Backbone:
């Protein structure tokens, strides 16, 4: 064999080998770091990354991603990620892993160097900022000097009320949602389909070929049944969507309570409403945790496949590439099972172990949801996390539950320095939470129970001595507390409803110490808020009632057409209606 033929090929092979040996791992490491920094908006580090091709494998060690809100703390870190891939799917450009291992996974750990990226600014959470402001503005200055004239003279501007803004937004969105729902159950759509089936029936009725006539009758019968089933499905979905839209009106009542608290704050008076007091106490802490969870969820959804129906079809500029069925079809990326281990907590950390199964970029090809099960135990502490992410349908659905009991709560501060604070120390906490998402919609509950705690109120901002004494007395003798929240809305705009038995104690203290005058001022403020909201709420309710009646009429009209014409067609499509030939004997 000639050198001129062999030498260039050997050089090419050597260059390819040199690239993968010297350059592939550094380039992959650099790309992963940049991708994580873009998503987290903070520095990311990887200690080492090593890949092999025979067998195909990856080993990544010492990953740390900084927290964009706390430059000297890591959002997440782990010790090692390792896996080996199957060889056969690689020939189809697909990465399939039977077993992977993730060890040393921890959250909220300290860093020695700053994790802040230059020129990158973290946008503040509207949810956190809103509840912080509400807590900060909770007024106690005039508690000892209440004058009804201040409440009577105070003017409420509808444009400043959250309930008014929300009612207007809901009215606009309801109009839009109703239009989409109405088009889904338009009687003309079903009437046109039935007319087409009737025309086909009339044509088939005159068919002289009995076999063909029987086939046409059978096909028409199937389509009539399918049309009926489609209508029932459309009807159920339309009614569910309309009920869901109407349920969102409850948020106006929540906003109305917030408006009352805001008006009372502007009059330098505390609200006696327990929910307003609960938001003042626990709102900032819960909002911080919720915002962090929403950030994780948004980051995860960014890389989740929203729909994979077209994954087996590739469109080209000319023609179409056809994928013939295989006995075994692989997703582009799949980890069948990944074992996970790590620690939770920075002081006296709790070790946990578990597994994530069905991690894939093409869930509709794989056909199964992604599941996670994590457990940990140490002494009286117990951790149990169960989560499911189902992206096999048109919308991503998630369902997760978390219980963490026996947690040592050494120090917890509730409230705001500008209004009122309470220090909680030496408690044992128990957390239970459940969260479901369907598309962008959220629904969930969480509760934190504190036992064996000491409560120390900081009432320096309360100038009135009787009120200060009442507030301090309301916490004496307490050794437990319950803080609960319900979450709704969407991932981008979550809504929180917060309750705590500490608010009940404070409300009684306020009422007892300040007498009836504050209650009268609150009633006057409530009346003014209701008057400002009334025209907008009435318009919203009238719109909903009118559209509900209109939709009900459309549904009845479409249902009568389908039940009448459809059932009549089905009766005429029975075997006895076939035009059988006559024979002479």
Residues:
């Amino acid at each position: 064999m000639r050198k001129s033929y062999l030498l260039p090929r050997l050089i090419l092979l050597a260059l390819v080998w040199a690239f993968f040996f010297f350059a592939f791992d550094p380039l992959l490491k650099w790309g992963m770091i940049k991708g994580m920094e873009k998503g987290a908006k903070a520095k990311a580090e990887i200690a080492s990354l090593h890949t092999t091709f025979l067998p195909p494998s990856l080993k990544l060690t010492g990953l740390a991603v900084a927290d964009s809100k706390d430059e000297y703390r890591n959002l997440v870190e782990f010790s090692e990620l390792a896996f080996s891939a199957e060889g056969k799917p690689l020939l189809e450009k697909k990465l399939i892993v039977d077993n992977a291992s993730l060890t040393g996974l921890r959250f909220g750990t300290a860093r020695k160097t700053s994790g802040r990226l230059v020129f990158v600014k973290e946008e503040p959470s509207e949810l956190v900022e809103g509840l912080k402001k509400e807590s900060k503005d909770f007024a106690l200055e005039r508690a000892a000097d209440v004058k009804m004239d201040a409440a009577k003279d105070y003017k409420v501007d509808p444009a400043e009320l959250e309930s008014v803004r929300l009612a207007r937004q809901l009215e606009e969105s309801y109009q839009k949602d109703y239009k989409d729902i109405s088009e889904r159950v338009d009687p003309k759509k079903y009437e046109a389909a039935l007319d087409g089936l009737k025309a086909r029936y009339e044509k088939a009725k005159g068919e002289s070929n009995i076999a063909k006539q029987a086939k046409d009758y059978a096909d028409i019968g199937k389509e009539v049944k399918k049309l009926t089933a489609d209508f029932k499905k459309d009807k159920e979905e339309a009614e569910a969507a309309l009920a869901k839209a109407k349920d969102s009106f409850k948020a106006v009542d929540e906003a109305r309570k917030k408006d009352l608290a805001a008006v009372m704050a502007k009059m330098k008076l505390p609200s006696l409403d327990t929910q307003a007091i609960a938001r003042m106490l626990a709102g900032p802490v819960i909002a911080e945790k919720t915002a962090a969870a929403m950030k994780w969820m948004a980051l995860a959804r960014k890389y989740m496949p929203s729909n994979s129906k077209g994954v087996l079809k590739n469109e080209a500029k000319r023609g179409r590439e056809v994928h013939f069925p295989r006995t075994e079809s692989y997703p582009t990326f799949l980890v069948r099972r990944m074992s996970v281990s790590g620690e939770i907590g920075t002081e006296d950390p709790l070790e946990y172990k578990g597994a994530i199964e069905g991690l894939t970029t093409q869930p509709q090809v794989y056909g199964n949801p992604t599941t996670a099960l994590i457990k940990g135990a140490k002494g009286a502490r117990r951790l149990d996390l169960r989560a499911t992410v189902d992206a096999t349908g048109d919308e991503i659905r998630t369902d997760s539950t978390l219980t963490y009991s026996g947690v040592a709560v050494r120090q917890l501060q509730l409230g705001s320095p500008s209004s009122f604070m309470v220090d909680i120390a030496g408690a044992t906490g128990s957390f239970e939470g459940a969260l479901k998402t369907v598309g962008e919609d959220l629904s969930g509950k969480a509760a934190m129970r504190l036992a064996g705690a000491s409560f120390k109120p900081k009432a320096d901002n309360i100038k009135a001595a009787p009120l200060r004494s009442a507030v301090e007395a309301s916490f004496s003798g307490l050794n437990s507390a319950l803080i609960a929240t319900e979450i709704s809305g969407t991932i981008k705009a979550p809504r929180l409803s917060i309750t705590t038995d500490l608010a009940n104690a404070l409300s009684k203290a306020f009422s007892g110490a300040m007498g009836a005058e504050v209650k009268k001022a609150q009633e006057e403020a409530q009346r003014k808020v209701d008057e400002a909201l009334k025209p907008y709420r009435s318009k919203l309710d009238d719109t909903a009632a009118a559209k509900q009646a209109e939709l009900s009429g459309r549904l009845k009209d479409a249902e009568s057409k389908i039940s009448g014409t459809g059932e009549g067609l089905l009766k005429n499509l029975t075997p006895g209606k076939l035009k059988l030939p006559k024979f002479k004997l």
